[in-house]
Amino acid sequence: MRLELLLFILGLVFLIFGAEILVNGASKIAATVGLSPLIIGLTVVAFGTSSPELSVSLKSLLSGQVDVAAGNVIGSNIFNVLFILGLSALITPLIITQKLIRFDVPIMVILSVAVWLFSLNGSISQLEGGILFIALLIYIFILIYKGKKDQTEDTSDYSEGGSRFKLLLKNGIFVILGLVLLVYGSRWFVDGAVTLARHFGVSELVIGLTIVAMGTSLPEVFTSAVAAFRGERDIAVGNVVGSNIFNLLGVLGMTGLLSKTGMIVNSSAISFDIPVMIFAALLCLPIFFSGKIISRKEGGVMLGLYVLYIVYLIY
Predict the structure, then answer these.
(1) 10 or 227, which is more confident?
(2) Which 8-state DSSP code applies to residue 157?
């Protein structure tokens, strides 16, 4: 038991540091080639902080722990909206850009409903996984096409201390190092979590929805909280919305695509947890539209809803 607990903790540490190194390097690469802060938040930072979810879900799928794979994504999306946005809004009220309101948030809602419809038959098939993954590529292309900015304007902060090639090489090494930490971290984290869950008689679905989901979402917590504290509100909100979209399209899409028999989705998740995920996504629409800001009061309500959700899962 001590060994499993040690692996669980080491895996979590590797996931956090791996994601941090990956995001830091990838963000600087994105800025060097001329992407705006919002686009960086929606793509590179969001996808980077979601890489633990991807690595954990793939490892869980390959190990036959399908409830952890699906629960991880569903729980992470609920956690991202209710806990992370709520916490970030408590730090500082979050101003919402028109682009998020008109394009990205509606896409997050539509995708949440689409995943629920895909899973109604009890699994996400290879075809459905392929559709989700192709949709991710299209989404990334649209974001980059719309958000490309003048390189000289965006790369001024990174032009000192070396050529663009050296900056790309240096940060590329950080990205690779981060990925290595994520691979090993996910392996130890999932193995430890599942062993501990079975020891205490907790179902793998609940573990995936809570401990694993929270653990793999810690990079998002850190990134959004620090971004909000520093006034980088586009990155704080874009990170959450982008992470949720990547979880639905990239993580579920890839795990479904790689599973020959399709990724099994637990009936409890279909009847309760995915609807909660849809509710959390829908909750963003009135909050984002009302004054185009998430106030501290609204942030507190979101945190309270997440606490109620966790209490329900436990009891």
Answers:
(1) 10
(2) G
Cα distance between residue 95 and residue 207, in whole Å: 34
For the segment 147-197, what is each residue's pLDDT rounded down to a tens digit? 665 444 444 444 444 577 888 888 889 888 887 887 788 778 877 877 877
Neighbours of 178 (CB within 10 A): 23
Ranges 154-163, 208-217, 252-261, 301-310: which has the least confidence? 154-163
Taking residue 133's Cβ as centre, other Cβ atoms within 10 Å add up to: 19
Cα Rg for the chain, rounded, in angstroms? 19
Q: How many other CB atoms are there within 10 angstroms of residue 97's CB atom?
A: 16
Find tokens 């036959």 and name the residue. Answer: 64
When the pLDDT of each residue in the chain is averaged and rounded to a whole number, the result is: 82
Alpha-carbon distance 3 to 196, whole Å? 11
d(CA 148, CA 294): 27
Distance of CA 303 to the CA centre of its chain: 18
Contacts of 206 (CB under 8 A, 6+ apart): 71, 197, 313, 314
* Cα–Cα distance, 106 to 110 (Å, whole number): 6
**Domain spans of the chain?**
2-314
Q: Under a CB-based contact definition with an 8 Å cutoff, are residues 82 and 303 in contact?
A: yes
If one counts every other C-beta atom within 10 angstroms of the C-beta of residue 266, the result is: 22
Architecture of domain 2-314: Up-down Bundle (1.20)
Q: How many residues does the chain have?
A: 315
What is the model's pTM?
A: 0.79
The residues facing 95 across adjacent strands are 293
d(CA 254, CA 124): 11
Close Cβ partners of 122 (under 8 Å, ≥ 6 residues apart):
264, 265, 267, 270
- 3-state class percentages of the chain: helix first, strand second, coil last, to nearest 5: 85, 5, 15
CA distance 307 to 157: 40
Distance (Å, rounded) from C-alpha 167 to C-alpha 207?
A: 40
